């Protein structure tokens, strides 16, 4: 990434929905070190973990928001608490994750429903809540990040999730045009990409270098 690209993150407000995951931590750290104001979500509904302290120890401007990912009001609470700090959001990074592995013949309707409710419906709710805070920003960016190892081929629930992330991202890109860019990063293949590699890809999608990239899902291999 060029020096010019690094400087463009200065003083941008970034909300990362899950700063407790390895990928969320890596994205938060790289954005903070490049001058962004970083707000990390702590989705456990309890006290914040050490992620925010790690960022603060490096002299970066960072804050955390505890929210309940299992509550219907959780997404809006997360966004509103985050936006109150700076009264704007420039970047939104949705950290999504696979459920437990389950072979097709062992998968229940509840398994699929729970995974889609938690990840896809949750991500949609967060983006809808963030829209009023982002719509006036000149370079609003949303990246949906599905991290982890690509599940086994017959894991139907996670295969549906993988396809849903791509479909959701394309649909959101069409709905949020103009100053918005909406893209996604997902695993590809049987090896997991390193969190730092995923974070660098996210920063690329947030940068002006990716201004022509819209509605795309980038697959990363390990």
Protein architecture, described:
With 222 residues, the protein is an alpha/beta fold. The chain is 43% helix and 19% strand. The protein has helices at residues 3-7, 22-33, 51-57, 74-86, 109-134, 156-175, 195-206; strands at residues 13-16, 37-42, 62-66, 91-97, 140-147, 180-187, 217-220. The chain has a seven-stranded parallel sheet, sandwiched between helices. Helix 7 (195-206) links the parallel strand 6 (180-187) and strand 7 (217-220). The longest helix is centred in the middle third of the chain and has 26 residues, at 109-134. The radius of gyration is 16 Å and the shape is globular. The two termini are 20 Å apart.
């Amino acid at each position: 990434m060029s020096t010019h690209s690094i400087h463009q993150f200065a003083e941008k407000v970034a909300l990362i929905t899950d700063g407790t995951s390895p990928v969320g931590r890596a994205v938060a750290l790289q954005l903070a070190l490049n001058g962004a104001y970083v707000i990390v979500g702590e989705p456990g509904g309890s006290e914040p973990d050490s992620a925010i302290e790690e960022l603060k120890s490096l002299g970066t401007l960072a804050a955390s928001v505890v929210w309940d990912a299992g509550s219907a009001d959780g997404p809006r609470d997360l966004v509103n608490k985050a936006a109150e700090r700076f009264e704007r959001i420039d970047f939104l990074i949705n950290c999504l994750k696979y459920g437990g592995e389950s072979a097709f013949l062992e998968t229940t309707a509840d398994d699929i429903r729970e995974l889609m409710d938690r990840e896809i419906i949750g991500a949609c709710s967060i983006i809808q809540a963030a829209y009023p805070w982002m719509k006036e920003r000149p370079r609003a960016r949303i990246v949906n990040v599905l991290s982890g190892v690509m599940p086994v081929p017959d894991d139907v629930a996670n295969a549906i999730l993988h396809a849903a992330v791509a479909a959701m991202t394309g649909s959101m890109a069409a709905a949020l045009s103009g100053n918005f860019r909406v893209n996604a990063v997902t695993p590809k293949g049987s090896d997991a990409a390193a969190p730092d590699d995923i974070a660098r890809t996210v920063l690329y999608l947030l940068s002006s270098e990716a201004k022509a990239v819209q509605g795309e899902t980038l697959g990363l291999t390990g």
